[in-house]
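My current task is to audit a protein record that another person submitted. Please read both lines and tell me whether the tokens look consistent with the sequence. Do not assume that whoever made the record got everything right. I have pasted the whole thing underneath without changing anything:

===
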Amino acid sequence: QSSVPSLTSEPNSIMLVPAGDHYTMTDFATAYFREAQFMQRLKGMMPPEKKSVADLVQHTKLPIQESLLSYSDSELNELATKNFKTLMRFMGDQSKLRNQNEVECIYEILQLCKEKESLHDEIYCQVIKQVTHNPNQESVLRGWLLLNLLTGYFLPSNVLMPYATKFLQLASSDPSSTHHDIAKTCQSNLRKNFMYGGRRHLPFPVEIEALLKGHGARRLAILMPGGVEYLTRVKTFTVAKELLHEICEQMGAGEQEEIEEFVLFAIRNNNKMVKPLRSEEYLHDYLLEDKLVTVTLRRLIWKTPLHFENRIYTDVHYGQVAWDYLNGRILLSRSKEMEMQVGILAMLQHWAKTEQQNSAPSREELKEYTPKTLQSTISPQALQDHVGMLLRTRQPLQPMDAKIQFIEHVMKLPFFGYNTYLVEKVSDNTIPVPCFFGVNKEEIIVVDGTTQAISSVIPLKELQNMRTLRPVSEGGLPGIELSYGSAASPKAIWLELSQAKEMYHTIVVILAKTEL
């Protein structure tokens, strides 16, 4: 067992940077380093001289023979001394083993941290020791690169935290030093790690190789609604919230309440895996080495009023609303009234195209403007006649105005704002299947697949528990079990659908954003 207390949660004190000369690494070494305690015993319980203790937290050319911190567990002591040798090989202070490269050295150290939480403080102290008063600048840079990864993945204990924080503050406050910028990055990593929990998956070799070459960011194209790509660069520890703020700023959506209504989705293997990312999730936990993951932006919640003074904002909303309308993401009734709406929306889509204000849409274009779910029930000739009449009797709109009117028109449809999922099987046999489940910021609704009547409503504030279910049989569909109601009147329902995980994670994200 380590002499350094284990992690506990003290959120109000951990991330405060200590003032003055207290909480230096020399102070920490005096209190907790094995050798400092030994020196203290030799001097008859008198505190050892500061200079001799300071040497314990400075670079050494020789491997340590025992762990820096005191461990009664001999295995931990052995792992600590072995790790120090790996650290020295990575930093270039010792020759590497045969067939061992830098990436493998980093992996070995990170993997040990992942497996042995009780060694976090030891490994932090080892790296800090080896970057302090190290005469070799290349070695120092390597050490700071490792510290960059450590701070983003693993937290030191509450005991070491103020000392490590102070060390990083001092290192980042000297603009003349070569590691000034990376020390600031480490500070940011540590704050995010404390707030969001750190990255879940260790980095791919290609990511480490890029870091070693000085490439600290990866180019990423975010697919925006309407097919537009937003090009950005994501760092090793960028979280979804940071990227959302950046994109929303470009769109002119600066209010925090509205930013919270947008979500990034990670899509893998052509829509086989679709997951909305929570604000605190790290982008690199979803960006695979093979680049088969696409990141898209969607507005998930429609609470704050829309505003159309920014062209990008208008295009993004038009792109999403039009795609959802045309591809069955919004439930539409098969009625005469809906046919009239389809005609008006077809005209607005046509005007939304540049330089189409004075032309009539072709039969093929009208098909593109008609929702897929209604194409079999609406007569192409009747639609063409209706749109033709509308064009003759209405003043054409400019593309931006047409897009705005299209959005406002679709937002009035009964099921707008619900994230809709086709459900094949439900535990409640009074609900005909297939049916639709819709989720918005307030509730989950069950909609009849034929009549589109709402047969059941589950307020999100009544949702008590939720879990995903594996397919019952080979080739079967996954499912979700929803527990809701009150303690006095508990209820449960399970459903089977191909998008079970997407629906589950969408509900999780909505609950987090609406803080119900």
Observations:
- Residues 326-412 form one domain.
- The chain has four domains: 25-203, 217-299, 326-412, 419-513.
- The chain is about 40% helix and 15% strand.
